[in-house]
Amino acid sequence: MEAGAVSGILDTTLALVFTWVGYKTSMIIYKYTPYSYPNARIKAMEAKLLTEQRFNELAESRTLQNFVVSLEDTPYRDYLADLQSYDVESIERALEKALAGTYELMAKILPKRVNPFFRLLLEEWDVRNITSVVKAKLADEPAMDYVVEIGPMLQKVKAMAEAKSMEEILVILEGTPYEEPYQKLLLGEIDVRAFETELYKMHYGKLLDYALSKKDEERTILEEFVRLRIDKLNILTALRGKAAKLSAEEIRPMLIPGGSVKLDPLLHVEDLSMALAELDSTKYGPVIRDVREEVEKDLGVLERVLEEHIIERMNELNRFYPLSVATPLGYVLQKEREVRKLRAIAKLISDGLPPERIKELAGDVA
Length: 366
Prior knowledge:
Blueprint: H1 3-46, H2 52-59, H3 64-70, H4 77-80, H5 88-109, H6 115-138, H7 154-162, H8 166-173, H9 179-186, H10 192-212, H11 216-243, H12 248-251, H13 264-267, H14 272-279, H15 285-288, H16 292-297, H17 299-320, H18 326-350, H19 355-362
């Protein structure tokens, strides 16, 4: 072969190699660089999460005013600063706003290709608010007392709370995804429990559709996150149904599509103990095996264990994909747990329980 031909082949080969290396480098930059700043910021925020020692100190507050004062050196300070009174309801609302602020921050600092997911997560407050207002109206109670001032549809929710009739609420919901299920409720085609379930099905359906629209590890992480959350809700619904002696036909419509585990075998057994035995044969068996006896007495234990399992799974994905959406998801889960503990402590202080008992009960909150 002539020297010129050999040189041409080498040049072509080198050009292909450099093109491939350039493509791979650009893909790495596209996939990982946008997470560098937000994930570093989130790691710094994780260092400010409250420790068990701090929770124990808060349990010693004895009054809600002392509880609020003790949080002045934390990120909750700004949310608690405008409290008009030191009652547990006001404190819980402020803590909920702080949690929503975390989702809003994630939507602001994360790459554009994933930040809409965190805006979708905020819509869960719309679902809660709408169902709370409708339930209050049906019970002839002051609906505004049940509104948490969070969510993309907050103004419509407030208008619903002030509506003079149930029909007026339909006009307010016109053009929203919630119009159709509310119309069914008005017509008597579904009851309020089914109405609430429909709204949650829509919410988790949107989350799952968004997750499935992503690619590579972003799809892997977001999809697992959503399916794990759906599993948790469905498992708790199924077991609570069994504890209440409901039939499979009564429980099935309350389940949310999209979970990763088939629960139908649980629905056809006679009681809670047998349902837990069926659950033991699923992938959640190892998760609940050590606490099964406790779960039979208190399903709240199962809720805590499932929450911990989701956090652990996100931490595993975070270790496998260190520059990814797993980091912010893991952080918001920890923040949710922190807010639940703070709300529990505030409620227990309000109820007048002694500090040692508060520490014991708050320690069981996940």
